[in-house]
């Protein structure tokens, strides 16, 4: 485009005879075109907006085989850098979970290289994909075998290490020769790697490992001059011993023990742990020897690595059993305390493991750490799981001397914000009160202070705790009932409500307006949680027995509505039982309902001695963290009859707590418990179908025996068996025993049930030794009963109205 | 024992996955993501699902997860996870998502070396650095020559030191760093006071020097005193410290310490933590805090906080920070201080009072007033403790002193030693 030089308008073209010319539209300017006019202009391409966000957006998108094809070219490239880069990309893809197995032969081709980094990458790839290409692995074998002869010990070790990780049968044929060579390599680094490799081989093919005599070679390595080789040989042997069927691979004898002790001082921290772990398996010949070993192990307590310290503690705790000298034991305990305290300065996770273990050690040796309770005081910013464990240990260390300190500390915790922790703190105060008689007064005062804070959940928890204190020290703190009753309105949790109702019922004669209170509760009787209903029922009956004149109408109304309007079988059954008792013989009712309660005690050592010893053997391991024997959470191991008995009886009660705390999947646990149940029943009764007891349909009403039949199937709340016990305790011998049996069974059966705590004495007192016997009771009891029961069930189906049932039942009595 | 090791980012994406045993599949990674990372209520660092146990440690924006099917040594697994973090830090400066993504090849190499078949091997960062390098800059020839030396060292009795170190000037620096932990009750009683000390050393010494290190440790000194003055009256020297417990770097000969309480060692080259100790006896608290906090009605709280420095007036403290909690429903906060600066930080629900230089024996005061808004539900204020942060140079709370550091080496060179002391706040909390 051209413009007019005089007036700047656009020039147009016109023909003037033979030639063309530019002319201006507004002025007379003319430019004749006499030669070719050319003008060149490059145009900028318009920038396209990238709607998806530029190159970076393409970095991690899914790809079709396009990328694999690209990698394939790169892997076969003639340039080393390019190949290496390609291998790196393959590994990156592998990490994010993309399938790159199709590149197998091309990656393996790059194995033959002097570049150590590249070699490692290829090996990494091999380990991951060898299984999917077993036929092609043979391509790599040659390089492996060659590498185990390499001058560079790092490469020798790398080759033997990787070979062991490739779990393909074909490679095993080629593994044995190089492995034997490496076990005798003069470089310790290669030897220690080869030692572990024997364990890998063992894991794949035990026969072959034995045939080739590797066990013997490994045992020889225990006396190697290099401590790390010793440690790895010990590690490998220990693992093989555990999985071997003959258990003769690594029996720690005096010779081994001495060699391990010699290596202990010089090997790495991890090696020390391996050696300490194996030392724990050694059985000392006499007290003197045990003392000597302990002396050699004690310096490990000063190690900076917490797991070394805990492993040393384990060895010492185990050997202590063999030491006779009391003085030496005292000395050991004194030496163990400071390192245990120091563990509390480590990372929170290690602290957690340590605290769980200190808990165990305290149960075994209650005299340890007696003066160190302060270090277990919670810091404001400790993680919740650490706080919880510290609280447990504080209670364990609680005695007359430090109770003051602990109480003020617990009170402090009760004002924190973490609701769960606050509740635990309040509970802890109650446990202190029950444990230490002299301190109960102070504890009650602290609880009253807490109730005065009016913080809802604190008040509720405090009331639950006070109920327990009332049970432990009856007739000592009645004065505070009035204060408790002022907080009626703030109670909304069933347990707290139930507790207060229990208190009101129990002390009805001392509360002037007891009937008003109960009546107040009864207004919402039908809407309450079954747990509260049961308590209300019992409390009303108690009230009636204590103050018959004013409450006759009340009790009648309650029983009426409980029997006719409530669907819950428990509540209804109990109402019937009470009704029957009251209508036939009020004196008997009094004897049953108002009978003396068995006193409650805090279980200090919640773990039975047998289990405790097993857990001490497992200090620092998972078992010690869960406070459960290893068999309970390790799969694939069939329950032996022995283990089942132990597991079912000893820690069924613990189960719920630990389960809840540590999130072991409930289904698995229930499955295990059920298994245990079934096995247990089998053990006791052969294959008789006693399990039907467990699954028998709930019988809605009936005589004693049918009540008992249903109970295990639906023992729903902690108070249930307790209160059944309330009225069953005075019944005739045999049925009382059976009730007890039921209680025990309820405990075993219901690992998910709320912590049974103090409110249900039969459950908490039943222990391993007698539960089997009680099952026996039950079995013998149920045998003759069955026909009668069936008959009875038929009757019930015919009877629609409960009142009719009542009449019919009379003849059964 | 460790069957697999995973590193996840905050979102639960797998950054590193390394299986050491065949009893697990890679898909187990998803289980952890679902059960822990996307679960808001995780109450334990160990989780067992079925027969598989997951141990996790959080660091920066990462989850480091070890998985096992065995009855593994739980303490070992956690210590190992922390060791992995330390190695990462030593290699990359800091171990976070970006560092992991940028160095994943190297991390695989490291993981290959530190764990074999699930058993921890060598985890000393310094040794690892000799043969696993960030850039493969070394020529292959060099590697060939050195590798047998490396392997000897990696497995040897002094795996932490190379034998051929040479310095023109032989120097050793010792830093004694103490963290004071204090918990003061509402009534002003000391609930817990202890000192966690670290002795850090930077050794630039030639050859394989054997060092002997002496502290004013009461047990040791009293024993010496008894030896020297047989039959003399044994008196407690006032300038000694009773150490409750101590832990040493692996280079220290523990057997020797146990028998005669001397600390002797062959130091690694460069910086390392020689020992850690703990004392709870006779602690000089560097600061005294007297809080007076009155809740006036439901709408106002008055604070009066007095801080006094308890150490010699020749010394001074740096970076003193007090964080004084206020209730969640604080509406307006005014505060006046006699030194430093104080301001209300709503995000932390606290008044933060900073004093950059705090002379010994001096005393400062903060007066403040917090007005509260009305709240619908009355929930008591939990009154978190006042926490304090500070550093005091050339002062040890425990009274610990380094008496000597002797270096013995074959060539008998002269060496120069330096000692510094510092006390800083650990968990310095005052309830009110």
From TrEMBL, chain A:
This is AP complex subunit beta. InterPro entries: AP_beta, AP_complex_bsu_1_2_4, ARM-like, ARM-type_fold, Clathrin/coatomer_adapt-like_N, Zn_ribbon_RPB9. Residues 689-719, 736-807 are annotated as: Disordered. GO terms for biological process: DNA-templated transcription; intracellular protein transport; vesicle-mediated transport. Keywords: Membrane, Protein transport, Transport. The keyword Protein transport applies. One of its GO terms (molecular function) is clathrin binding. One of its GO terms (cellular component) is membrane coat. Coiled coil: none annotated. Residues 2-52 form the DNA-directed RNA polymerase II subunit RPB9-like zinc ribbon domain. Residues 736-747 have a biased composition (Gly residues). Belongs to the adaptor complexes large subunit family.
From TrEMBL, chain B:
Belongs to the adaptor complexes medium subunit family. CDD domains: AP-2_Mu2_Cterm, AP2_Mu_N. It holds the Pfam family Adap_comp_sub. The lineage of its organism: Eukaryota, Fungi, Fungi incertae sedis, Mucoromycota, Mortierellomycotina. It comes from Lunasporangiospora selenospora. Signal peptide: none annotated. Keywords: Cell membrane, Coated pit, Endocytosis, Membrane, Protein transport, Transport. PANTHER family: AP COMPLEX SUBUNIT MU. GO terms for biological process: endocytosis; intracellular protein transport. This is MHD domain-containing protein. It is found in: Cell membrane; Membrane, Coated pit. It is a peripheral membrane protein. Residues 169-431 form the MHD domain. The keyword Membrane applies.
């Amino acid at each position: 485009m051209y413009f007019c030089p005089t007036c700047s308008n656009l020039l147009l073209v016109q023909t003037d005879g033979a030639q063309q010319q530019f002319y201006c539209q507004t002025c007379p300017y003319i430019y004749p075109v006499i030669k070719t006019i050319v003008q060149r202009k490059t145009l900028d391409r318009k920038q396209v907006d990238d709607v998806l966000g530029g190159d970076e957006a393409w970095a991690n998108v899914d790809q079709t085989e396009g990328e694999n094809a690209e990698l394939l070219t790169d892997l076969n490239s003639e340039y080393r850098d390019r190949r290496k880069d390609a291998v790196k990309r393959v590994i990156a893809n592998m990490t994010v979970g993309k399938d790159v197995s199709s590149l197998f032969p091309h990656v393996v081709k790059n194995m033959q290289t002097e570049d150590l980094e590249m070699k490692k990458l290829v090996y990494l790839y091999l380990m991951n994909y060898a299984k999917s290409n077993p036929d092609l692995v043979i391509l790599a074998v040659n390089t492996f075998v060659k590498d185990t002869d390499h001058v560079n010990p790092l490469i020798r070790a790398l080759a033997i290490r990787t070979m062991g990780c490739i779990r393909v049968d074909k490679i095993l044929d080629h593994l044995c020769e190089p492995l034997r060579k490496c076990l005798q390599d003069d470089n310790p680094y290669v030897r220690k790697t080869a030692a572990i490799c024997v364990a890998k081989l063992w894991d794949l093919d035990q026969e072959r490992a034995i045939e080739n005599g590797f066990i013997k070679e490994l045992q020889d390595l225990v006396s190697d001059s290099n401590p790390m080789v010793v440690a790895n040989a010990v590690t490998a042997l220990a693992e093989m011993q555990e999985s071997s069927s003959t258990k003769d691979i690594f029996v720690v004898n005096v010779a081994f023990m001495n060699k391990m002790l010699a290596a202990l001082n010089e090997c790495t921290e991890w090696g020390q742990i391996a050696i300490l772990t194996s030392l724990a398996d050694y059985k000392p010949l006499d007290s003197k020897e045990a003392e000597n070993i302990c002396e050699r192990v004690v310096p490990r307590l000063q190690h900076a690595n917490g797991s070394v310290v805990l492993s040393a503690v384990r060895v010492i705790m185990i050997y202590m059993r063999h030491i006779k000298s009391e003085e030496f034991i005292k000395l050991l305990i004194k030496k163990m305390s400071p390192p245990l305290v120091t563990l509390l300065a480590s990372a929170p996770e290690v602290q957690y493991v340590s605290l769980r273990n200190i808990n165990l050690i305290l149960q075994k040796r209650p005299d340890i750490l007696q003066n160190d309770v302060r270090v277990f005081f919670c810091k404001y910013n400790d993680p919740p799981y650490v706080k919880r464990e510290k609280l447990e240990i504080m209670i364990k260390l609680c005695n007359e001397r430090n109770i003051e300190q602990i109480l003020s500390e617990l009170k402090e915790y009760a004002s924190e914000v973490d609701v769960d922790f606050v509740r635990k703190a309040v509970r802890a105060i109650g446990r202190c009160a029950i444990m230490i008689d002299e301190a109960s007064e102070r504890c009650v005062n602290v609880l009253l202070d807490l109730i005065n804070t009016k913080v809802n959940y604190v008040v509720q928890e405090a009331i639950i705790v006070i109920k327990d204190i009332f049970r432990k020290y009856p007739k000592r703190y009645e004065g505070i009932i009035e204060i408790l009753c002022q907080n009626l309105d703030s109670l909304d949790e069933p347990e707290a409500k139930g507790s207060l109702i229990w208190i009101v019922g129990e002390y009805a004669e001392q509360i002037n307006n007891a009937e008003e209170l109960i009546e107040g509760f009864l207004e919402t009787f039908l809407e309450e949680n079954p747990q509260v209903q049961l308590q209300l029922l019992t409390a009303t009956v108690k009230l009636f027995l204590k103050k018959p004149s004013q409450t006759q109408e009340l009790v009648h109304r309650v029983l009426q509505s409980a029997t006719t309007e409530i669907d819950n079988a428990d509540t209804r059954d109990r109402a019937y039982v009470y009704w029957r008792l009251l209508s036939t013989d009020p004196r008997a009712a009094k004897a049953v309902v108002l009978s003396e309660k068995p006193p409650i005690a805090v279980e200090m050592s919640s773990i039975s001695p047998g289990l405790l010893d097993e857990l001490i053997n497992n200090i620092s391991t998972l078992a010690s963290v869960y406070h459960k024997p290893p068999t309970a959470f390790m799969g694939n191991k069939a329950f032996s009859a022995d283990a089942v008995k132990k597991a079912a009886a000893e820690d069924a009660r613990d189960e719920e707590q630990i389960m809840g705390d540590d999130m072991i999947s409930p289904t698995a646990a229930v499955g295990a418990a059920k298994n245990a149940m079934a096995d247990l029943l089998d053990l006791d009764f052969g294959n008789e179908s006693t399990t039907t007891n467990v699954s028998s349909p709930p019988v809605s009403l009936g005589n004693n025996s049918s009540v008992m039949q249903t109970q295990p199937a639906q023992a729903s709340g902690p108070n249930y068996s307790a209160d059944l016990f309330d009225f069953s305790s005075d019944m005739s011998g045999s049925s009382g025993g059976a009730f007890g049996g039921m209680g025990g069974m309820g405990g075993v059966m219901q690992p998910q049930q709320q912590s049974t705590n103090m409110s249900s004495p039969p459950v908490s007192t039943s222990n391993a030794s007698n539960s089997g016997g009680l099952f026996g009771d039950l079995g013998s009891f149920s045998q003759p009963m069955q026909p009668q029961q069936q008959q009875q069930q038929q009757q019930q189906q015919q009877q629609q109205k409960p009142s009719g049932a009542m009449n019919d039942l009379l003849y059964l009595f | 024992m460790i069957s697999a090791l995973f590193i996840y980012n905050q979102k639960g994406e797998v950054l590193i996955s390394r299986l050491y045993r065949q009893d697990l599949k890679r898909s187990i990674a998803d289980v952890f993501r679902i059960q822990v990372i996307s679960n808001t209520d995780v109450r334990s660092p160990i989780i067992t699902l079925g027969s598989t146990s997951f141990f996790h440690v959080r660091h920066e924006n990462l989850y480091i997860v070890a998985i096992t099917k065995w009855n593994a040594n739980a303490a070992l697994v956690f210590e190992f996870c922390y060791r992995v973090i330390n190695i990462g830090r030593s290699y990359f400066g800091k171990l976070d998502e970006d560092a992991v993504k940028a160095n994943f090849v190297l991390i695989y190499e490291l993981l290959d070396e530190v764990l074999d078949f699930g058993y921890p091997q060598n985890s000393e960062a310094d040794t690892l650095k000799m043969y696993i390098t960030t850039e493969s800059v070394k020529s292959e020839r060099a590697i060939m020559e050195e590798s047998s030396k490396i392997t000897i060292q990696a497995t040897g009795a002094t795996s932490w030191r190379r034998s051929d170190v040479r310095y023109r000037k032989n120097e050793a620096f010792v830093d004694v760093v103490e963290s004071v932990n204090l918990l003061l009750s509402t009534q002003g009683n000391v609930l817990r006071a202890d000192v966690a000390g670290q002795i850090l050393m930077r050794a630039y010494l030639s050859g394989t020097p054997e060092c002997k290190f002496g502290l004013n440790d009461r047990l040791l000194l009293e024993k010496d005193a008894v030896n020297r003055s047989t039959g003399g009256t044994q008196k407690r020297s006032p300038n000694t410290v009773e150490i409750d417990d101590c832990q040493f770097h692996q280079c220290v000969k523990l057997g020797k310490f146990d028998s005669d309480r001397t600390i002797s060692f062959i130091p690694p080259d460069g910086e390392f933590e020689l020992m850690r100790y703990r004392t709870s006896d006779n602690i000089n608290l560097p600061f005294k805090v007297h809080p007076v906090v009155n809740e006036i009605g439901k709408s106002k709280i008055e604070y009066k906080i007095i801080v006094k420095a308890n150490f010699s007036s020749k010394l001074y403290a740096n970076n003193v920070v007090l964080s004084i909690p206020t209730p969640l429903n604080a509406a307006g906060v005014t505060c006046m201080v006699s030194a430093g600066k104080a301001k209300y930080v709503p995000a932390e629900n606290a008044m933060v009072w900073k004093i950059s230089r705090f002379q010994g024996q001096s005393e400062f005061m903060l007066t403040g007033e917090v007005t509260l808004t009305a709240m619908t539900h009355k929930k008591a204020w939990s009154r978190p403790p006042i926490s304090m942060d500070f550093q005091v140079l050339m002062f040890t709370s425990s009274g610990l002193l380094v008496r000597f550091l002797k270096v013995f080496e074959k060539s008998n060179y002269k060496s120069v030693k330096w000692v510094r002391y510092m006390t800083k706040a650990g968990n310095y909390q005052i309830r009110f």
